[in-house]
Amino acid sequence: MSDNWVVGNLQNTLDTWNGKLSEIWTLVTQSPVDFKGGQIWDVIVNIHGAIQAIALALLVLFFVVGVMRTCGSFAEIKRPEQALKLFIRFAIAKGLVTYGLELLMAVFKIVQGVVSTIMNAGGFGSATQTVLPNEMIKAIESCGFFESIPLWAVTLIGGLFITIISFVMILSVYGRFFKIYLYTAIAPIPLSTFAGEPSQNVGKSFIKGYCAVCLEGAIVMLACIIFSIFATSPPVVDVNVAPVTMVWKYIGELIFNMLVLVGTVKASDRIVREMMGL
Q1: What does the DSSP 8-state code read for residue 33?
Q2: Sequence spans of domains, the chain
Q3: Is pTM, for the whole model, over 0.90?
Q4: Cβ neighbours for 118, distance < 8 A, ≥ 6 positions apart
Q5: Looking at the chain, which terminus has fewer C-beta neighbours within 10 angstroms, N or C?
């Protein structure tokens, strides 16, 4: 690493960005069971189990209300085909509430398989590191003390923007884990609505919403792969301009690419919901 203070400032900023990008890469491929050592998951599982008892009571309520609203009379309920239909609906709803956690984890694993396929097809096993071009380092190191002052100001402003962008992006990915935990904890209640035909749309919307949250990981991974391709072909450095102009143009283009990535990551929820018609 260069001893130049301007180069050092730029490199430290890029190290922050690379660290957050690598963390995102890890988070997208990580299961909520293992996130933060599994402590959060243990609490969520306990909450899920406690809510199951409430959901089973609601299941009976939704079933009774559904029978009253869909059957015109008691004689209609006694018809074999209608009774079988109601029994199957109740059994499916009971199974969804009882084994809802396993169902949600199965959906998550399927999406993780999609993410792994995207990674393998893209040929990226990890995030590509963004590094300073050697031409820029040499140009900065050739500057005197007074020439370095505007360079330091440019790198300070650019570094501040890049650091803020890094934390905004990582917060968006952390938000996905929070949503997965929230969906998992409260799952028994919306799943119990499948017991009644009039209320089943609540359960359908819940499952679609959970699938959308899981699929956000695929969108984030695609965005990171595209950015990694940009990182392997960094902005062109014009060695014929002044160092301060060179650095400013390089940082500006780099920040633009980063903003596109962050915008895609933040919009991943909306993108998936539009794809699923939610």
Answers
A1: T
A2: 5-275
A3: no
A4: 218, 221, 222, 225
A5: N
